[in-house]
Every structure is written in C-alpha cells, then in structure tokens.
Amino acid sequence: MQSRLRRFAFTLIELLVVIAIIAIIATLSMVVYGNVKKRSSSVICTSNLRTIGEAFSRFAGDHDGKFPAAYDKEAEDPEFAVWSATLVMGGYLPEPTDKSTAVFLCPFDPDAGDADSYTLRSYAYNVPEGDSDVVHPVRVVDASRTILLAEWYGKDPYFLPTGRPGWSEDGWSWRKSGGIYAHHPDGGSNVLFYDMHVDLVKAVPDLPHPSTNIKWSFGEADPPKQ
Fold first, then answer.
1. What is the pLDDT of residues 80-102, one digit of tens each?
2. C-alpha span between 185 and 189 (Å, rounded)
3. CA distance from start to end of the chain
4. For the whole model, what pTM was predicted?
5. Would you give the DSSP letter of residue 137?
6. Which of 19, 57, 61, 119 has its CA 20 to 30 A from that of 111?
C-alpha cells in the first residue's frame, strides 16, 4: 500500500512538472508571438513609406521633376486637394478601400482599429514654407537628412484629435517643424527621407537637436543651368 502511495505521489510530482513546463512554453510562445507581431507591424509601416515614396518619384517623373503640393489650391474638388489624394486620384497609389490597402495607415496608429481606419493618414509631408509650394526633389539640399514623410499621430504635441483627417481631406497633413515621437514600441518612428531611404528614427523632442542630424527645414539649390 505504501509502495503504491509513493508511486502515486511521484506521478503527481511529474504531472506538476509537466504542467509547469507547459506553462513556461506557453508564456514564451506568447512573448515570441508578440515580438513577431510588432516586427510585422513595423515591416508594414516601412513598406508603406517605401510604396508612397515610389509614388512620389513616379509623380515627379510625370510633372517636370516636381513633387505634389501639400494642398493643391487649383484642384477642381477641394475635398481631393491634399497631397495624398493627389497621388491617389492621379493613379500613383490605389484608393484605400480597406485596411489591407490602406497604405497611408501605420499599424501602430492608435486609430488603426477603427472601422473607418482605412481612410486615415498616419504620415505627415514635409513641405517648404508655403503650404501650396511644390518641391523639386533633385534640388533639395542634404536629401539624405531631410524628412519627406514622418509618422505623425496619437499623442504628438502638434496633433489635434478633433482635426484627424482622412486621406482625401484638408487639415493636418503636412509639417514644417516639430520632433520625432515614440510611435513604435521600441521608442521611435519610421521616416522617409528625400533621398528615398527609410529609417527607424529614435524619438527626439524637437528638431534640430544635437542628438541627431535629421531635419525638417531644407533649402533648394539653384536649378541646373540649361
């Protein structure tokens, strides 16, 4: 009888060990899954910016080397005058119809779970001093350091929740100043630069800043002589 109890007790210990191992594996799996999901979201965000950058380049190729204006005051329909709508209406990017085609939406955007999230825009366009000015990208000084598009949403100091625009609306859509804020879990944001490379930039409170050489402000060199 005692031998049976000893065998039974040993079996219970084994069972508890197995349960503990399963619990550890499950916890590790959840951590791994969470990290994979975050990396996947970051990859999507990076891909979005590269896709939009390619659209900017194609637009410039069809418009004498100029990028679209932040807001086209000559547009026939003011609702479709903002830069993102210009790219869509011109056929350079597909019209967002759901989240899978919402190239203007970063998965880390806190509004990404909303029913109409595919209409939102997570990226701000860096433009010259006049909102309607156009940019000749080949003439931008320090193109590899100058922001073209940056994530801009959520708790940014310059962000106004009541003015959150869709891709085809006027309102918040461009920037000339401000910082880079911690939109991603690792404390940074994706930025597309005027030379068309994309980097994950660590948050800085304002630009210019001694901790980084990236910038909003830029100048344009004189056009090449004919």
1. 788 999 999 999 999 888 888 89
2. 9
3. 104
4. 0.79
5. G
6. 57
